[in-house]
Amino acid sequence: MSGKIEFAVESEVGRLEAVIVHRPGQEVANMTPEAVERALYSDILNLVAVDQEYDELLGVLQRRARVFEVRDLLADILADASVCEPLVRRLCAAEGASALADELLTAPPAELARLLIEGLPLRKDNLSRFLSRERYSLPPLHNFFFSRDSGMVIGRHALVGNMANPVRGREALLMEAVFQHHRGFEGRTVNLRTLGGDVAGAAIEGGDVLVAAPGVLVVGMGARTTRQAIDQLIEHFRREGATQHIVVQELPPSPESFIHLDMVFTMLDRDCCLAFEPVIMQKHHFDTVHIHIEHGRVVKIEEEDNVPVALAHLGLDLEVLSCGGHGDEWVQEREQWHSGANFFALGPGQVVGYGRN
């Protein structure tokens, strides 16, 4: 890596300069029907098809930005013994598998990075293990290719996700280690778990965090991000002492297509967004709350009609495009179910979405 990358994300639609990705690999190929529900999947993915689609996405990203594979970044930091051993022991302890640490630490950095992502196969060296239906002593990270969930950048800070499901906890620990220890990155890493409060109930994932403008966040509150975590986010900004606005959008608890904010609301340009109307635009159907933090204290918390109205009050006037068009709720619901509101901006007015929408 030549030249340090500084954490600096002030808008979802700013020009993308660098991005961390993870190419789906054997941790996806080795999914079994038994593991689908535990791994938070609704189906088994075809890795051949995934590879083809991922190549298309990667090709676009590489033409626009510096692209870093998280496995390579992990291998870099694992080459430092002062980072490697404490990290591996922490990971294993967090998963109740401390006995595996010594075995993992014998692996070279690149192989260790692979094992931490793809999983450590269960050694069938006694009767219980031989008869076990489990295939891994350290499970694969089936969801790690959703790399934004476990680590996101807000302004000059990298925020570590606090995953809603324990099966994804290792993802956040690995991303935190990369942010903190990789010499190619420069900036502060923030983990909300260190701020105190109701840590047990505090979950936050990157798919729920949208940087609308400098000092303005939109945060989804639903299945994967809780009000306790948002309270911790408020506390973080309160301690920072700067001006910060947080627009909180309540999300339906089900179905799974509403799992994150970016499934119902995304930015397309500096003056344009895409929204799933039944959740985002219907007044008071789901709560929208504006929190204003100034000089170390919360100066205002109030309800808003919806996210675009709240952002307009902050000087961000957006044209709202409707996912699935207007009027026919069945069409809207089908489009949203197929991620029709889920776009990723490479720059102002330059977005990537799904071909099926």
What can be said about the biggest beta sheet? 5 strands, mixed
The domain tally reads: 2
Strand order of the main beta sheet, please? 10-11-12-15-16
Low-confidence stretches: none
Structural class: alpha/beta
Number of strands: 19
CATH architecture of the largest domain: 5-stranded Propeller
Relative strand content: 15-25%
What is the overall pLDDT average? 93
Shape: globular
The CATH superfamily title of the largest domain: L-arginine/glycine Amidinotransferase, Chain A
Overall radius of gyration: 21 Å
Q: Summarize the amount of helix as a percent range.
A: 25-40%
CATH topology of the largest domain: L-arginine/glycine Amidinotransferase, Chain A
CATH class of the largest domain: Alpha Beta
Number of helices: 13
Distance between the termini: 36 Å
Q: What would you say this structure looks like, in words?
A:
The chain is an alpha/beta fold and 357 residues long. It has 2 domains: 1-156, no CATH class; 191-357, L-arginine/glycine Amidinotransferase, Chain A (5-stranded Propeller), CATH 3.75.10.10. Helix content is 32%, strand content 22%. It has 13 helices and 19 strands. The chain has helices spanning 26-29, 47-64, 70-78, 81-94, 101-104, 109-118, 127-131, 147-150, 169-181, 227-240, 277-280, 307-313, 329-337, and strands at 5-6, 18-21, 66-69, 120-121, 136-138, 151-154, 157-160, 185-186, 188-190, 209-213, 216-221, 244-250, 265-269, 272-275, 288-294, 297-303, 319-322, 344-347, 350-352. It has a 5-stranded mixed beta sheet, sandwiched between helices. Helix 3 (70-78) packs across helix 9 (169-181). The protein is globular. It starts with a strand and ends in a 5-residue tail after the last strand.
